[in-house]
Amino acid sequence: MSSPTFDPIQVLADRFRSAIARAYPEAGDSDPLITASRQTNLGDFQSNAAMPLAKKLGVKPRDAAAAILKHLDLADLAEPLSEASIAGPGFINIRLRADTLAELVAAFDTPDLGIDKPARPQTIVVDLMGVNLAKQMHVGHIRSPFIGDAIARTLERLGHTVIRQNHVGDWGLNIAMTVMRIMDEVAAGTRSLDSLTLDDLDTAYRLAQASCQRDLAGLQACRTYGLGPKAEAECQAQVDGATEAFTRARQVLVQLQGHEPRALAVWQRIADVTMAECLAVCKRLHINVTAEHSAGESTYAAELAPMVEDLLKRGIAEESDGALVVRLDDPRYGAIKEPCLIRKSDGGFLYATTDVCAVRRRVQKIGAERIIYAIDARQNLHLRQVWGAARRAGYARHPVTGEDAMLEHAAFGAILGDDGRPFKTRTGDPVKLSDLIEQAVTAAAAIVREKSPDLSPAEHATIAETVAVAALKHADLCQERVKDYVFSFGRMISFEGNTGPYMLMAVARIKNIFRKAANEIDPDLPWPSSPLDLREPQEKQLALALLRYPGAVRAVGQSLEPHRLSQYLFELAGAFSSFYDACPVLKSEGGTRLSRLRLCSLTERVLTDGLSVLGIPTLERM
RNA sequence: GCCCCCGUAGCUCAGCUGGAUAGAGCAACGGAUUUCUAAUCCGUUGGUCGGGCGUUCGAAUCGCCCCGGGGGUGCCA
Question: How far is the CA of A79 from the C1' of B31 (A)?
Fold first, then answer.
């Protein structure tokens, strides 16, 4: 739990709780309902306790507020209370004393910035990537790792044990088709495995898909409309060819399943090429996903048949039209009409089979008490089916706690273009991720060169890279994840408003103050521990904003919505900008300067820490 | 058909377990710079919170019914 020493809401809640208990002993334990005031002209905090209390006891709300006030002693914390502190139907407004606020900020000024370890850390699996072999990464792939990594970092920051899982799509018939295609090309001497690139694979993947796709509709049309023997023969040839290719692809899949060395070598090469690119992108975007987080579908392949046997034997799975399903009508399993299909009538397994198997491994072997899926919102039904099946099978029951793991979908919407339709290039192709990053870096570089001409080209390059990455990630993470959002290159890279560059700028300005301070001021000045003197309104507002940090991080841990932290950080940066404008730091003197330096330092630490929790890198200067 | 998600200012979006006159940013307009980065700050203009009914002292928030948009829906992943 949170340490009560720095949190004004906790401190006030304690006082209100006892005041309420004295004013209305018959009321029992009543929530003081302390919140930060929305209008700062009325106060810093407010209690909404009087209204529900009055209702419960059948008295007038304002009378209840007056009674609470009568028993409330905040003289050491807040500015004097009076009748005027009661507003509207019974709100009680509180303004903290500057010295109290200073004490709270000093208590908050610890290495962990008010976020202490949980009494019992949880083991949490975050499913956050899911790239597919042989497919070029495009913008559609980016939300999962952005959001998933931010959630993972948040939970780590809160003291939990987080296991990232990159659920790589590296198995199944689609992959076998590509393996077949590459094997054919190698056999024909048109392809060298050594020089294989992801672009090559992307092309091969698409060609392979097409070659296995039987155009039955076309053939039917030829016959129906009598398009002539030639057209019909061509269509027939296509269908025959596709049928043959499809059959061969199935054979390749069998070879892969049997670890046939030649097919497996090609598969391994495809996996290596894809993963190298994927992990390089992660590294460049400061996404904490590395090789050790890979848990591809192929690693579950051998477990599927025994698992399905287990389900069948225990009567959890049943046959239906030749297929094997797990029914989920029971409310305990989600009350889902559509059953979870785990084996096709031809004996093949489906992605649901693998996903059920993944729940089992994550809970039974990894020990997950909570599994979070940072996955496209469209997968919601699929996930609920998988969870229902896993719970029904007992796979979700934690071996130690004996309780079902929490299974949560951190769903996200699509990235749209200006036209409100899914973000595509002018030609209609998906936007390649590497192209998007390059474009962002180029745009950032142009701005940095213009704004900071005094820096070296090497510095420009470094800064542009970081600004671009921050802009991209921030543009995604500042939005409510479940909604679609409109991607705007100009808005993202802008320094105005709630953007990555604006946030980096706030950090860089503070760093700049300390750079100057180191030159112009005795470096031994005791600002890190000097008393805070919060006399200006901007100083108070900044202090109040700082104290909200732990709550903002916890809110993300609970809601799995990183935009809440982003929103908070933007508000903190705004409070700092107002402070920066109104309160000179280096030009002030004595205690004021020391106090302001400490305030700056704290702000910088919170901003940097908060951005790092979101996975956004910061800069010393820009 | 059934299920899920979304609808807040001209645009892009916040709005916490229901709380006061619904907030930011952009755009528009007006100010502030011999200044620690003006890449900023301060102010003005702008909204029947998709519509209705209900619960409540109090609803953008909770419930029900509509309207509009998107998505999913047994043998692809």
Answer: 34
